[in-house]
Amino acid sequence: MKFLLRWFTSYSEKEKQLSEAVKRIIGVKPYNIRLYNLAMQHSSVAAENENIKGFKESNERLEYLGDAILGAIVAEYLFKKYPYKEEGFLTEVRSRIVNRESLNRLAFKIGLNNLVEFEGRKRTGQSHKSIYGDAMEAFIGAIYLDRGFHFTRRYVINNLLQQHYDIDEVVETNTNFKSLIIEWAQKNGHSVEFTMSKPGGHRVGKQFKVNLVVDGEVMATGSGYSKKKAEQDAARKTCELLDIS
Amino acid sequence: MKFLLRWFTSYSEKEKQLSEAVKRIIGVKPYNIRLYNLAMQHSSVAAENENIKGFKESNERLEYLGDAILGAIVAEYLFKKYPYKEEGFLTEVRSRIVNRESLNRLAFKIGLNNLVEFEGRKRTGQSHKSIYGDAMEAFIGAIYLDRGFHFTRRYVINNLLQQHYDIDEVVETNTNFKSLIIEWAQKNGHSVEFTMSKPGGHRVGKQFKVNLVVDGEVMATGSGYSKKKAEQDAARKTCELLDIS
Prior knowledge:
The structure is a homodimer. Chain A contains 11 helices and 3 strands. By secondary structure, chain A is mainly α. Chains A and B meet through helix 4, helix 5, helix 8 and strand 3 of A and helix 4, helix 5, helix 7, strand 2 and strand 3 of B.
């Protein structure tokens, strides 16, 4: 049915080109090119897409969906790859795989950066740092709606995780975010401290909660099964927030 | 193959009973009852399950998996149910559906509470508040591994979301968490304030970030597309953290 529909849908020249590009990336022609087209529309160009109901379409909804689908696929992949590792380990490794930096890099690796549309195409300002990673998630949302769960799962595992990540290295590379933050603060004249977050005086479950405070403002709260891990977690989040790397 | 395996696997009496109970809940007999058995083992009984490699099996890994699978299914469900709602709305509604309180209630509604095993079965202390919600997630992880994505998706949508949630009510019930927190603080003699989290002076994407500070300690950071929404978000997280309702 979807196949037949494609025959009767007339594609614009732009859509034909996108269709070819998507085929090069995922290996098959899209059933519904409009999903992929939407996935490549950053919100900065959404005003042009305003539809009849005044709803401005951009890739943000697809990004929300793709984020959830990717999270589930990576969760299962790690669950099966590491049968004797605890939940805390799996969560940590997953967050390293799907964090903004990783997804930005991934978008460039598969050539998605050439397809994304946004205002100020040439600008390379800080605010654009997550455009590609966001588009990466939206792209996965589009694949899911277009081709279903099993196709998406196979694509993510075989073409993304296994080709573009060295998971063992991801596990071993224990980036010391705490050092990064401290170095950054010293260089730029900021104060940094960790404070314990004590909700009602009790620990939250078995996890420690720690705040990272920069110049008196809490930047992020980290959690982990040790104080050290909670600090690393808070430091990692802060590095992401402030684009420190 | 899985079906054949079941014929050759001998079940203990306990497993047979659990198999019947699961069948009553999900409508079909499990292929692999051991997954469901594990899903019902809270970490407080894990020591008894210590295996040959010294790895203590409990439902925590399955909880991690089920959380991700449930998140993806609910994400798609809301994405399709609300085609003209923005990402922020979808994220908010999803978090209300899968938060700890909701999942605790859900576990009781489908009768999972009778199957969960934990130390101090009779105790009703605060630390046990999330046992059922956690088991609910682990149960979904077990269904996923046992029966695959499509079965799980159908079960979650048809039997959980549509039977046990009134989604329109979830959307409309805009619990005023900010009032709850302020009331709680007045009653118990705590100070409460909201502070803006200003990472490097710029807003994070289009979202506001706000910290909720109780007695000088940051409890949670909230985000949203308006300051008010960010405050509500921080207040909701704090209510969950401190079991305020």
